[in-house]
Specification:
Layout (H helix, E strand, L loop, with lengths): L1 H22 L6 H13 L2 E2 H8 L3 H13 L3 E6 L2 E9 L1 H21 L5 H17 L9 H9 L1
Antiparallel strand pairs: 1-3, 2-3
Helix pairs in contact: 1-5, 2-5, 3-4
């Protein structure tokens, strides 16, 4: 099993690097890209909720929000129910950028999963969900479509 864990770690790093390379010409980091995807899927969100979803510190999310706002990809406003909290919302420019990034991700996924059968993909998905659960992450109980949507972001 140790070799599988090492392969998983190495594959994860390579996948992250591949997405970073693909996103670089668009001026986004993988975390920024993921934040835009969250805002697209869930609508306006507090910075703290984005931080929890991305497993990032408040300082990291504050910096991310600054950069996304400066690029015109999100707006940031004070939460009307808590003046200390900030809410991010995707702009039309951000939505356009996200559509571009989704096209890029489709190309990356096509390359990553070239030669992998649907049966192998299903087995990998089930195994990874079990690993995630064992590691303390909540494995999604959502239908296949939601899991696929997560992969697209």
């Amino acid at each position: 099993m140790k070799d599988v864990a090492i392969l998983l770690h190495e594959a994860s790093g390579l996948l992250r690097r591949r997405f970073e390379q693909a996103a670089r010409p668009e001026g986004l980091t993988l975390m920024q890209w993921r934040a835009l995807g969250l805002l697209d899927q869930q609508g306006p969100l507090r910075q703290v909720a984005i931080g929890e979803a991305l497993e990032a510190s408040p300082m990291t999310i504050s910096d991310l929000a600054d950069r996304l706002e400066s690029a015109g990809l999100v707006t940031r406003a004070t939460d009307p129910s808590d003046s200390r909290a900030k809410v991010l919302e995707l702009t039309e420019t951000g939505a356009t950028k996200l559509r571009t990034m989704r096209r890029i991700s489709e190309a990356v996924f096509a390359q990553v999963f070239a030669g992998v059968t649907e049966r192998e993909t299903a087995a990998l998905r089930q195994g990874l969900l079990k690993l995630k659960k064992n590691l303390g992450g909540a494995a999604p109980s959502a239908p296949e479509k939601d899991v696929q949507d997560e992969r697209e972001n």
